[in-house]
What we know:
The complex is a heterodimer. By secondary structure, chain A is an alpha/beta fold. Chain A is 41% helix and 9% strand. Chain A has 13 helices and ten strands. In chain A, the strands form three sheets. Chain A has a six-stranded parallel beta sheet, sandwiched between helices. By secondary structure, chain B is of the alpha+beta class.
Amino acid sequence: MAKGDPGGTTRSRRPAPRSKKGAAGSPELVQLLTPDGERIDSATGPDGTEYRVDFTDEEYRGLYRDLVMVRKLDAEATALQRQGELGLWASLLGQEAAQVGSGRALRTQDMAFPTYREHGVLYCRGIDPIMPLGLFRGVDQGGWDPNEFKFNMYTIVIGAQTLHATGYAMGITMDGKIGTDDGEAAIAYFGDGATSQGDVNEAFVWASVFNAPLVFFCQNNQYAISEPLERQTRVPLYQRAAGFGFPGVRVDGNDVLASYAVTRTALDNARHGQGPSLIEAYTYRMGAHTTSDDPTRYRIASEVESWQAKDPITRVKAFLDKQQIADAAFFAEVDEQARRESVHLRERVLNMPNPEPVTMFDHVYPNGSPLLDEQRATFNRYMESFEGSAH
Amino acid sequence: MSRIKTFNLPDLGEGLTEGEILAWLVKVGDTIELNQPIVEVETAKAAVEIPAKWAGQVQAIHHQEGTTVEVGTPIIAIDTDPGAGPLDAPSTTATPGGDLPTPSAASLAAVEVAPAEGMVEPGLIGGAAPGGRTAVLVGYGPRTTAAKRRPRKGAVPAQAVAAPAPVAPAPPPAPVAPAPALDGRGAATGGLVLAKPPVRKLAKDLGVDLSTLTGSGPLGSITREDVQRAASGAVAAAEPITATAVATSAASFGADREQRIPVKGVRKLTAENMSRSAFTAPHVTEFLTVDVTRAMKALDRLRGRREWRDVRVSPLLLVAKAVLLAVKRHPMVNSTWAGDEIVVKEYVNLGIAAATERGLIVPNVKDAGRLSLRELADALNDLVQTAKSGRTSPADMSGGTLTITNVGVFGVDTGTPILPPGESAILAFGAVREMPWVHKGKVKPRQVTTLGLSFDHRIIDGELGSKFLRDIGDFLADPEAALLAWT
């Protein structure tokens, strides 16, 4: 794919401080940690922005813990679906680094708009991982408070959340909450398939012309269910941003450090009033699209294997090990924590009560409605008409 | 709570009603861990592994491999506390699943941190290969089960029939789908009678009990005529029909001495592919009888070499090599008719038709033209072993460009093979027999075989097809000379 002339936009391309070899091979990819666990001091984006991170040992270990936890909880949810305890599950396997990296880059005041696969971002926002499981078990609507956690409800409709995020971000501007270090920003998550949606393109236009403090975070996991990337685009996705008038950058989505660095910079630019940007986190969906999907029908084993070599967790572990930031005891302790929490999660899922049917009338209007009250009463009479009406 | 827990087949993919048991990964008596893969199930959407819901010991397996099971039907019973001594009588009654929300402390304690591969999505390439997949000749979609939506009102699930006190009178088993349980008890599958509302009204008016009828309409639904015939007393009572259905399902012949086998799975796909190919590609078949004595001797010499000692070497290997070399000389035979263009391929994904327990499948060796003879031998052996064990994946079966069918192993001389859809040539390799043959002017017993080549006449003319077949024959008649001359 040509990294050709992006069409009228002048770019100053400086050479990367250290040449990166390796799987990605693409010079456009921002990477700070190679698949082998080798640290790269800094990397340069297509517009010349320099990306680097400086973490304490404790923070490095924290990121590793996040990645392992997120993967383990996700695997448990997949197992629960197979056991008939969830109706459906969209696994994030393989995309942990993109989610943890960007999720940890968010500041308290920033607002995130997820798809239905952002379990890792949800985890980083401090939301109880049981929350999405209730949604996929069909016992609630995914009942966290978006305002409390600054994390919107999961959006099932592909790409719709990018418009919600744009509106929200425009609201930030209207509230005057930008332009300082403590300004606010929003981030919209979506996938490579969503870039073909009208909604996403409309969001690009609006965010661009209104200079909305918004980061478009595209996890390019190479497949829109079964449709491969080459059926979505002829140019690297991040280059689309140029046509809409804002910067775009491609980051190694399996590199938690680079994902963090790129997102942090983009959010800071947004909160300082410099408008939207697009991040293409180049990653791979190791699992099925959802538990209803069978990826062996549309992709070959060797492709999956080649991405296994770029696993987001293995490289962090190798780095921690090599730099002696963590020892075997630490890794064992993290595994043990993941095991405990996944068992705990399972136990709680199995004990989730089925909601009373009448609760469907709750939370429709903030202050109730006479018509709804009437319907509720009718429904209650109906339910009571059953023998031994303890449903 | 009983220590024996029964696991019912869940709805694995949003509104499915059934799944086929592909393979049991555990057997009765095995000790299993929580989330350990226990069974591979194929639904209309995907083939997946199901992880164990409880740790314990496998107490009973309710359905054999190859059985199609309704969602909600018990498939396995697990003793969650096998250390607690023998089971007392009451607890052996299987509890219907679904009422067991809390995992036992023992099962929780038994959770292991899954190894890296344990995190791999079941059914994913690179995870444990989903085995015994329904075969397709070309393309992806194995589809053994129709994606039926759930009926709006819940059908009486099978477990309710087996429950001690059924709430509603269970209708007799629908004779449409004979799916016997392993122990021979007729499994009540659904029990819902299919009939359109006006037909139901008619039956009610005429006093006909729909559950006693066998439907002759689509999907076994009961038609107006069925009801009218029943009303006039012309239809047999329910009992003999049910008896016939059970007898049929036991793979024997009914009173009419005919057996009806539902067309599904590999059989159905094979039928579809063969009809499609036979009636779209104009086939021409040519035959060539060849003295392969020298090739057989060459094989023997190959077997005698040290580096080939542990490799299974069969005549098929030389035939494959002959085909690959001949393709290099005539690339046009390795092509696809694509309507307004012909797609000629530089790579050869060499298909080998294999008879398996599940039926005919055609896995292929990817880019076989690039392999050395030794690599080709290994690839062919792998492919055959995988096929025999029923673990061939759809990826192995898709993308074939040219196929060999080795009918000789059945002891026949040759045939007129039908092209796999999308391919332009297929070679039938007959039995190698000792026959009287004129060799150097004298009739001598020689090893002789007959090749049959079918090709798509839209792409390949008689001349090209003949040259291609002739080259394969030349190679088999004198492999060393052909190698020297061609490569």
